[in-house]
Amino acid sequence: MRRVTGKQVVEVGAAEFDAMVERHDGVVLDVGTGDGKHAFHLARERPGELVVALDAAKDNMRKVATKAAANPKKGGLPNLLCVWAAAERLPAELRGVTELHVLMPWGSLLRGVLGSDPAMLSGLAGVCVPGAKLLITLNLHAWRPPVPEVGEHPEPTPESALVDLAPRFAAAGWRLDDARYLDAEAVAALSTSWTRRLNSSRERFDVLELTGVIPS
C-alpha cells in the first residue's frame, strides 16, 4: 500500500495496516477522494475511526497528507491515511472497511458506479466488512449536457436509481436502500472541494445521494 505523507510516498505493509485497523473503532474508505478535504473533515470529526483517502492521483492529496502528518497538537490527524491507488486496482492490504464513500465520482470511477465496471464494484465490496455502510453522491449536471463518462446511462432519479442501479449493485455485492435529492445544506455538509466549487458557480446545483450497505 502506497501512503502519501506529503512530498514522500512510503510503503505500508499488511501488518502495519492491520495494526492501524485494530487501534480504531472502524474504517471509512473515501474512494476518489481528490484533494482529500472530505476525508480530512471526517478524520477530524471522528477521531476514533481510521479514515482512508484513496485516489489515483497522488499529487492532489499532498496538501492534506502534509497537514495530517503534523503533530496532533498542531492540527495533525494520525487517523487519516492518504493512499495512492485506483479503485480498479485496490491495494492488497486494504481490508476491514466499515463505511464506503464515493462522492461526486468522475471518469472511470463514475462509469463504474453507474454499473459499467462490475469488477470494480465487486472489488470495493470485497474490502468491506458485512454490513458496511454505503454513501454515493452523483453530480447530476454530468448529464446536462451528458459527458462521455455517463455513456448510455440516462440521468438517474430517486425512482430510477432504485429500479436500474439497484440490480447492478446487487450483482456486485452492494445493496441500495435509498435514493434522494440533497438540499443545499446537505450538499455543503459533504465538505468536498467539488461541491463547494460547483455550488458556487451555479444558480442551482443538483446532487443525488444513494445509500445502502454491503450485506456480506
From TrEMBL:
InterPro entries named among the record's database cross-references: NpmA, SAM-dependent_MTases_sf
Secretion signal span: none
Top-rank taxon, per record: Bacteria
Pfam families: NpmA (PF24675)
Protein name: 16S rRNA (Adenine(1408)-N(1))-methyltransferase KamB
Source organism per UniProt: Saccharopolyspora cebuensis
